[in-house]
């Protein structure tokens, strides 16, 4: 048996007895970032595929949420900073080794893109809209002419943003729960799924909803597959990884993770979506709300639990 | 040049002088510390073994805190000392998450703070405050590249270990066992 004690009375706020330096702001931001990434990806995707007419909600209406989510997410990030007045230092340098640095730059690109995207549809969304200034009208015409290029850029940056929400955590070698490369794809797929859920929720077109539900089902299956692999990897790993997995397999996060994230946030809405596709009547808001709440819970749990895991010496 | 520290766990009695010396020397805010002492008890009664470790930042050769810093506030000073430029730090907490030794903390003023090996003293040719004050002389500081430095001589003929070598950080605190 081994027992280790701080005998010099170390009790640093937010670090002892276990690390808790990131609070609600980070998981909320990861959720909003993934959500925006999902919405923007599919908006770009259906424009590139030339299906603007059939996918009205995906291409025109849902993207209104993306810039709002990104701004709220950035604000949450700002609240998390403890030396707030120096936040601009993020944009004085590019540090390729730091995921947070290239995440900040990605946001710097995709946020304006999302605003421009929504603005280019303003005339269709709000009848009678005009931009008042001539140069804005000219800019709009230029964007509409080159919309497909914007769509491609948005898809690429949406994937980077989605992966980044996972890599932000997985780059921390010191936190064994996060330090797995599966987190990148897992957060990407989960973010896309929450984005799709939002579109399904607001779409009024039966055909569009069915099409998106089918894609969402595939994403949910991939997500479940990645979660299984995450835990297989941990259980086959070192002692630090095994202890990380044990937080979810009998430890304090078991119920919240398996019940609220996996069953109520993934399996149950997937079953409801299948029933809906088969023609059963399911309340329209129910599967999307469950997916969104599940996705939010997932990020809160991962951020909270990851900080507890550590090297043992 | 490569600054490093050797801690003789056989000599350390866990008095905590190094902790107080550091807090005084570096104006560490109340309730915080840049170094600390771990008492490690191993085995079952009656065959117990006891080890005291005076711990601090490991000034790693492959420092994850420097790599993950988005602004470059965390950086490597002369001799491999890991330091933070306060006015560049945004307080995002990434470096705190990245440290396997929990050696960093968020200063009440917002920036991240940590052990500097007393860089301001070392530059004047003095030893870090914790080393100078240690009553059992169990802390040895110096340049690893110099075979006659205090730290090189201390680890030369003794068995030593570093903490969590599997973290891949190449830590530069050598615990003599």
From TrEMBL, chain A:
The chain crosses the membrane at residues 26-48, 60-79, 99-122, 149-170, 182-203, 215-234, 254-273, 285-303. Gene3D superfamilies: Formate dehydrogenase/DMSO reductase domain (1.20.1630.10). InterPro entries: Electron_transfer_protein, NrfD-like. It holds the Pfam family NrfD. Keywords: Cell membrane, Membrane, Transmembrane, Transmembrane helix. It is a multi-pass membrane protein. It is found in: Cell membrane. Signal peptide: none annotated. One of its GO terms (cellular component) is plasma membrane. PANTHER family: PROTEIN NRFD. Belongs to the NrfD family. This is Nitrite reductase. It comes from Maribellus luteus.
TrEMBL record, chain B:
Residues 3-32, 48-79, 80-109 form the 4Fe-4S ferredoxin-type domain. It holds the Pfam family Fer4_2. SUPFAM superfamilies: 4Fe-4S ferredoxins. PROSITE patterns: 4FE4S_FER_1, 4FE4S_FER_2. Gene3D superfamilies: 3.30.70.20. One of its GO terms (molecular function) is metal ion binding. CDD domains: PsrB. Keywords: 4Fe-4S, Iron, Iron-sulfur, Metal-binding. PANTHER family: PROTEIN NRFC, PROTEIN NRFC HOMOLOG. This is 4Fe-4S dicluster domain-containing protein. The lineage of its organism: Bacteria, Pseudomonadati, Bacteroidota, Bacteroidia, Marinilabiliales.
């Amino acid at each position: 048996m081994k027992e280790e004690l701080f005998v010099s009375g170390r009790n640093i706020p937010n670090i002892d007895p276990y690390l808790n330096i990131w609070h609600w702001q980070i998981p909320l931001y990861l959720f909003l970032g993934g959500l925006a990434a999902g919405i923007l990806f599919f908006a770009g995707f259906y424009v590139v595929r030339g299906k603007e007419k059939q996918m009205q909600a995906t291409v025109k209406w849902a993207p209104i949420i993306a810039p709002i989510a990104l701004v709220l997410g950035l604000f949450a990030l700002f609240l998390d900073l403890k030396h707030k007045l120096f936040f601009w230092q993020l944009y004085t340098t590019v540090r390729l080794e730091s995921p947070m640095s290239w995440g900040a730059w990605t946001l710097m690109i995709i946020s304006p893109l999302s605003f421009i995207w929504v603005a280019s549809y303003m005339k269709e969304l709000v009848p009678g809209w005009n931009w008042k200034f001539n140069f804005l009208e000219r800019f709009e015409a230029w964007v509409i002419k080159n919309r497909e290029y914007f769509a491609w850029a948005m898809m690429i940056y949406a994937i980077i943003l989605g992966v980044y929400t996972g890599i932000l955590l997985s780059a921390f070698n010191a936190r064994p729960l996060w330090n797995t490369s599966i987190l990148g794809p897992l957060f990407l797929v989960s973010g896309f799924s929450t984005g799709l859920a939002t579109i399904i929720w607001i779409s009024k077109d039966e055909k569009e909803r069915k099409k998106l539900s089918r894609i969402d089902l595939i994403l949910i299956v991939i997500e479940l597959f990645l979660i299984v692999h995450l835990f297989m990897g941990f259980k086959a790993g070192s002692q630090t990884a095994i202890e990380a997995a044990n937080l979810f397999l009998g430890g304090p996060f078991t119920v919240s993770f398996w019940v609220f994230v996996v069953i109520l946030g993934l399996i149950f809405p997937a079953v409801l979506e299948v029933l809906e596709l088969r023609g059963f009547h399911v309340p329209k808001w129910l599967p999307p709300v469950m997916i969104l709440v599940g996705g939010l819970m997932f990020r809160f749990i991962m951020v909270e639990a990851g900080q507890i895991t550590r090297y043992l010496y | 040049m490569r600054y490093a520290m050797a801690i003789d766990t056989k000599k350390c009695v866990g008095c905590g002088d190094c902790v107080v010396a550091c807090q005084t020397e570096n104006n560490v805010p109340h309730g915080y510390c840049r170094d600390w002492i771990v008492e490690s008890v191993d085995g079952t009664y009656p065959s117990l073994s006891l080890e005291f470790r005076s711990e601090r930042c490991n000034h790693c050769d492959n420092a994850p805190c420097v790599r993950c810093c988005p602004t470059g506030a965390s950086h490597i000073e002369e001799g491999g000392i890991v330091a933070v430029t306060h006015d560049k730090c945004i307080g995002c907490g990434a470096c705190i998450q990245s440290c396997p030794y929990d050696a960093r903390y968020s200063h009440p003023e917002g920036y991240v703070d940590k052990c500097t090996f007393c860089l301001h003293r070392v530059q004047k040719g003095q030893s870090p405050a914790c080393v100078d004050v240690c009553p059992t002389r169990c802390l040895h500081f110096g340049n690893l590249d110099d075979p006659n430095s205090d730290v090189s001589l201390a680890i030369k003929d003794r068995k030593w270990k570093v903490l969590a070598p599997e973290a891949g950080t190449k830590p530069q605190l050598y615990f003599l066992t």
